[in-house]
Amino acid sequence: MNTWAVPGYTESLELGSGASGRVVLAVHKGTGIAVAVKYLSESLRLRPGFVHDFRAEARLLAGLNSPYVTGLYEYVESPDGAAIVMELVEGVSLRSLLTRQSPLDPEAALVILKGSLLGLADAHRLGVVHRDYKPENVLVTPDGASKLVDFGIAVTTGDSAGVAGTPSYMAPEQWTGAPATPAGDVYAATATFFECLTGHKPYPADNLAELALRHVDSPVPAEEVPEAVRSLVRRGLAKSPEERPSHAEAFVAELEAAAVAGYGPEWEERGRGRLAALAALLVLLRPSAHPGPETTTDTARTVLRPRAGGGGGRAHLWRPTRPGLIVAAVAALLAIVLAYGVPRNDSQAADQAAEAFATTSAQPGVESGPTSPTSSANPAESSASAGPPVPSPSGSQSPASDRPAVSATASAPTEETTQPGEATATPTPTTASPTTPAAPTVKDVAVSGFRQTGPTTGTATVSVTTDGTGPISVTVSWYTGDTSGQLGTPDGNPQTFDRSGATQYTFTVDHTFQGKGCYWSVQATTTPASAGGGASQQLLTRGCDIR
């Protein structure tokens, strides 16, 4: 097992582990804030493709500022390991909730669907497709809110990234490896909604080929859900992506109209209350700390359970079409690849469907994440900008203790995410050197995701790549002005962040602007200086119209 740990954090216990990595509970030494650290497994870290995907997940989270999605504190990578530092969550997965009580009341199911669809909508606006929406990746908090988690296989809209996802929730086009679109996420969300309403998946099957056929050919089983939401199910599970809502935001509007028409204007309050009672009960029934890993994470092996009672069912009442037969052949080939390309490990606890969870310990009034600047002449600015932003739905900052809980979970569903070619391997122990390395050369500095979050506030993501693990300092400066292409006048005091122990760092910083210029700019520089001297970005504020 790799003994490398993210510098600057004290780890206490492991929340979950498996073939793709592990999640541990940790506390940031500088602020005392509890976080979840997601480590990429040693076997996958030695394979460049998986490291690339891990970095991509971190970059996506850094740019996705949503109260309905997991928050990122920082990404750290060194020759000995790679890790994503995320927020903790108090809550339970939708899978655990369904295991406890299923089916759900329609109003409660609508609340779950709406909350996680809002997370999808924020991702879709940035051109990101999740591709793995399922009950294991939806978290329900004790106040009845629902959050979307785990962007591990997310891609940019339009990318052709092969066949990937969780079979029972994959849209027909996802089986063929067609370019990813938000309509595929809408399909998976509707399949999960159907399961909440009925207690079973929309298309049960005995094997992967049959499951593919049913998703492509079998009629939408809308008659099994309450009449008030049948139109939602028909739209969301439509076979063609052109017949579904084009993105999650459009589906939310349809959901709200159907919910009000079917259950009255108070549907959301009632549904949230029922969810809160059930989620709070599950949290109380389970301890907040565990002596060992609670579950395992996903592996590359796809396991499909036979239905209770054996064969039969609607699968034998219809005849597949030609497109369905083609997709079934693809599914059968995929099953063979997975069966022979991935070592079995039947000792894993794959039959348990539970999640790792913990309660955030951020104190009231703490507005920063675990990244803290080492110098700022403006105390107010320091407290507001000491690390990753803590956004509220309005775009302004709020105490970390008031931010909706988002997840860092490691779960083991009975049906696991499919990523062809992924294999497990025995980790090779490595030990980081106890000596302090010399200052490295800074190879690259990048500023991305610079955007306005409020009338006077903005946020940006800074990434730094070095050729060694020695100490560096990153200085972030802000400017205002009225001329495009020029930094303008310094706004407030620069913020300096010290980093060591890795070769790549990504963190998000936010700022309250005092100047009145129409253009805002941000600049990042390092010590030692990078060859390019640093990086900067500029934006035109929403309040100005330059002609």
Descriptive notes:
The protein has twelve helices and 18 strands. It is α+β, with helices and mostly antiparallel strands and 547 residues long. Among the domains are: 92-279 and 307-341, Transferase(Phosphotransferase) domain 1 (Transferase(Phosphotransferase), domain 1); 442-540, Immunoglobulin-like, CATH 2.60.40.10.
Give me some keywords for this one.
Transferase(Phosphotransferase), domain 1, Immunoglobulin-like, about 550 residues, 18 strands, alpha+beta, eight-stranded antiparallel β-sheet, five-stranded antiparallel β-sheet
CATH topology of the domain at 92-279 and 307-341: Transferase(Phosphotransferase), domain 1
Distance between the termini: 60 Å
Radius of gyration, CA atoms, in whole angstroms: 24 Å
Order of helices and strands: EEEHHEEEHHEEEEHHHHHHHHEEEEEEEE
Average the pLDDT over all residues and give the rounded result: 73
Level-2 CATH architecture of the domain at 92-279 and 307-341: Orthogonal Bundle
Low-confidence stretches: 287-320, 335-369, 371-414, 420-434
Specify the overall morphology. globular
- Estimate the strand proportion: 15-25%
- The top level CATH class name of the domain at 92-279 and 307-341: Mainly Alpha
